[in-house]
């Protein structure tokens, strides 16, 4: 009993000393609480559906950030991982009858395999070459999907998968808790030694190699990790929509992932997640709003593109880093972040400029 | 069959060469991966459609006006949305994607998703080795080759062309030698957009005009630029004809060809990259740091 009390006291101490002092950390806490509490407020079928898809895409965007943001391996074909995992999951579920909790991890392993296969030729390439080459793989695969409709279902895709879980609320908790956990894991990876090495590869690959790091191995690791997380998103999508179609491999989806991530703010994991959670529900609200004016032409995507263009015009770092720099500032002496209105640093008491 | 493939491949190759050369110029000089490049090609096609079909103006006038308007639009986009965020590569990339999407949506709003067409500039057909080839195809081929030759002349023989090539080669040294790098970037952008809009004007009678017509050329163009070596004009030229012929061979010979045309072109690109990671004509220069 006393241990429990001591433990709770410690949690409170950490909360007061480390979390509540910074607005960004409070925002993360509020976000997690809001995600977990949403079904208590509303169980509307449509709202939950939007939030489920949002959380699936958040996993996808964060996994793109792990590869392209942190490691600097610009990937224009991230839909490949998503699509491969969706198709593998669908085939395993339909042909072998595996339940979702087996088929989704196996589908993700399929995406890891895809990451290895494309990683090996791509490791020789850098920068723009790499970006434009990775764009090719999902398109090649899509061509194959259309050319062999017997296995892949062609244009219609594979449909009739088992449901993810029995009910919509359970679906919501599965996808959103997974999103929070996987996001946390990815954030921890970027904070670990491996993450620092990946960061070093992005900043200066030659210097990293000179420091004795086998950059090839670490880049391949980044491809596999990113493929795994994106693959889980793909598997969840296939089971939730009960469909794996060619839309999961489209160029549009690859571009969409990049737009979400850069809009939210690259190289931060939380940026892309926030980007998806802002843009995706916004698009749905816009759809409902525009449905009230049936005389207007279809202008949803136009508004989306204009919004992204204007945001990046004035905040090229992305939305979340921009906001963060507005409410927090870095101590000039000890590099700890502080709330913007503090006169002196909360750790070392140095004067903030 | 053979002549069909030959003519089709030559036209496709020439159009892709126009697009890819423009794209490589901007990539070399201003370091912009301009995804909206083929969207501007589409813009010129739509402007010609408006001019000839809706306003009923003569075709030649429409083509010239469309090319000028597209260049103006390209320069405005460059000045207001791309140049201010030049330091941020990712943001610049997304901005060009967003511009492409916006143009697509604008045309979708105005014209709907209908398949539109423009009448050929000249009717009739010629018979080459027993195969009928429409005069429009021959005209398109001739125009494309004339433009390609004059671009070559412009880049190799004029002072502006020299400035463009040297800025692409080394931006900083060009700046130190007293060249106006920003001005060169503007000129390059104008030439590049001009080439895209000429390509649009040339092919508009041969293709269906619709809001997603920029996607397929975009993918082919990116493949060509990587295949030929980034920033290399000769590479883009050779790569364009290789992939143009590959595409028409696949479409004419394979049963499910039109589904596989992208896949085959991109597989060729990846195979070449496995052997030569810097592309066919690329030079592997020192890493920029």
Automatic annotation (TrEMBL), chain A:
Q: Which InterPro entries match?
A: ABC_transp_permease, LivM-like
Q: Which domain of life is it from?
A: Bacteria
Q: Does the keyword Transport apply?
A: no
Keywords from UniProt, A to Z, are: Cell membrane, Membrane, Transmembrane, Transmembrane helix
Query: Could you tell me where this protein is found in the cell?
Result: Cell membrane
Query: Transmembrane: present as a keyword of the record?
Result: yes
The topology of this chain with respect to the membrane is: Multi-pass membrane protein
According to the record, the segments passing through the membrane are 20-40, 46-67, 79-98, 104-123, 130-152, 172-189, 220-238, 258-280
* GO CC aspect terms: plasma membrane
Pfam families (UniProt xref): BPD_transp_2
GO MF entries: branched-chain amino acid transmembrane transporter activity
Q: What is this protein called?
A: Amino acid/amide ABC transporter membrane protein 2, HAAT family
Instruction: Specify the species.
Output: Desulfatibacillum alkenivorans DSM 16219
TrEMBL record, chain B:
Q: Where in the cell is it found?
A: Cell membrane
Q: Which residues form the signal peptide?
A: none
Q: What are the annotated GO cellular component locations?
A: plasma membrane
Regarding the membrane, this protein is recorded as: Multi-pass membrane protein
InterPro entries with a match to the protein in the record: ABC_transp_permease, BCAA_transport_permease
**Predominant subcellular localization, coarse grouping:** membrane
Give the source's domain of life in one word. Bacteria
Family assignment? Answer: Belongs to the binding-protein-dependent transport system permease family. LivHM subfamily.
* Official protein name in the record: Amino acid/amide ABC transporter membrane protein 1, HAAT family
Q: Which organism is the protein's source?
A: Desulfatibacillum alkenivorans DSM 16219
């Amino acid at each position: 009993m006393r241990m429990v009390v001591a433990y709770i006291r410690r949690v409170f101490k950490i909360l007061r000393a480390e979390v509540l002092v910074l607005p960004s950390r409070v925002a993360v806490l509020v976000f997690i609480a809001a995600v977990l509490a949403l079904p208590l407020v509303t169980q509307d079928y449509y709202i939950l559906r939007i939030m489920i898809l949002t959380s699936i895409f958040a996993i996808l965007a964060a996994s793109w950030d792990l590869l392209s943001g942190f490691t600097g391996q610009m990937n224009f074909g991230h839909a490949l991982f998503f699509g491969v995992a969706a198709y593998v999951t669908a085939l395993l579920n339909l042909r072998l009858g595996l339940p979702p909790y087996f088929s989704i991890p196996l589908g993700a392993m399929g995406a890891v395999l895809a990451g290895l296969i494309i990683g090996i030729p791509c490791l020789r390439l850098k920068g723009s070459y790499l970006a434009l080459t990775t764009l090719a793989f999902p398109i090649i695969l899509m061509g194959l999907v259309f050319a062999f409709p017997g296995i892949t279902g062609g244009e219609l895709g594979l449909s009739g998968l088992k449901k993810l879980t029995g009910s919509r609320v359970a679906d919501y908790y599965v996808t959103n808790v997974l999103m929070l956990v996987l996001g946390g894991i990815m954030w921890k990876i970027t904070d670990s030694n491996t993450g620092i090495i990946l960061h070093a590869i992005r900043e200066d690959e030659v210097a990293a190699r000179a420091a004795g790091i086998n950059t090839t191995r670490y880049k391949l690791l980044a491809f596999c990790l990113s493929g795994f997380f994106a693959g889980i998103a793909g598997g969840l999508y296939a089971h939730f929509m009960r469909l794996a179609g060619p839309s999961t491999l489209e160029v549009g989806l690859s571009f969409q992932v990049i737009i979400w991530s850069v809009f939210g703010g690259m190289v931060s994991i939380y940026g892309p997640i926030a980007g998806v959670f802002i843009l995706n529900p916004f698009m749905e609200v816009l759809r409902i709003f525009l449905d009230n004016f049936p005389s207007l032409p279809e202008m949803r995507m136009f508004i989306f593109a204009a919004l992204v263009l204007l945001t990046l015009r004035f905040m090229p770092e992305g939305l979340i880093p921009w906001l963060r720099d507005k409410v927090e500032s870095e101590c000039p002496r000890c590099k700890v972040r502080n709330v913007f209105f503090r006169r002196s640093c909360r750790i070392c008491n140095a004067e903030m400029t | 069959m053979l002549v069909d493939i030959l003519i089709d491949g030559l036209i496709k190759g020439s159009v892709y060469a126009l697009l890819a050369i423009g794209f490589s110029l901007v990539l070399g000089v201003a370091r912009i991966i301009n995804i909206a490049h083929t969207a501007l090609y589409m813009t010129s096609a739509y402007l010609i459609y408006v001019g000839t079909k809706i306003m009923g103006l003569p075709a030649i006038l429409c083509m010239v006006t469309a090319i000028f308007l597209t260049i103006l639009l390209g320069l405005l986009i460059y000045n207001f949305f791309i140049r201010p965020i030049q330091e941020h590569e990712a943001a610049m990339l997304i901005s060009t994607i967003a511009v492409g999407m916006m143009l697509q949506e604008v045309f979708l709003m105005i014209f709907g998703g209908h398949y539109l067409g423009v009448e050929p500039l000249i009717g009739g057909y010629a018979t080459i080795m027993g195969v009928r080839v429409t005069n429009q195809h021959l005209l398109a081929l001739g125009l494309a080759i004339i433009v390609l030759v004059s671009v070559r002349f412009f880049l190799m023989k004029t002072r502006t062309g020299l400035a463009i090539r040297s800025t692409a080669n080394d931006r900083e040294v060009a700046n130190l030698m007293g060249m106006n790098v920003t001005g060169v970037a503007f000129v390059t952008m104008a030439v590049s957009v001009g080439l895209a809009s000429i390509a649009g004007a040339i092919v508009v009678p041969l293709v269906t005009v619709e809001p997603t017509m920029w996607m397929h050329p975009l993918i082919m163009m990116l493949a060509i630029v990587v295949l030929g070596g980034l920033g290399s004009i000769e590479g883009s030229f050779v790569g364009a004809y290789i992939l143009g012929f590959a595409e028409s061979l696949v479409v004419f010979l394979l049963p499910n060809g039109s589904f596989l045309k992208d896949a085959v072109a991109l597989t060729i690109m990846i195979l070449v990259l496995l052997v030569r990671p810097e592309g066919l004509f690329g030079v592997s220069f020192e890493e920029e740091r």
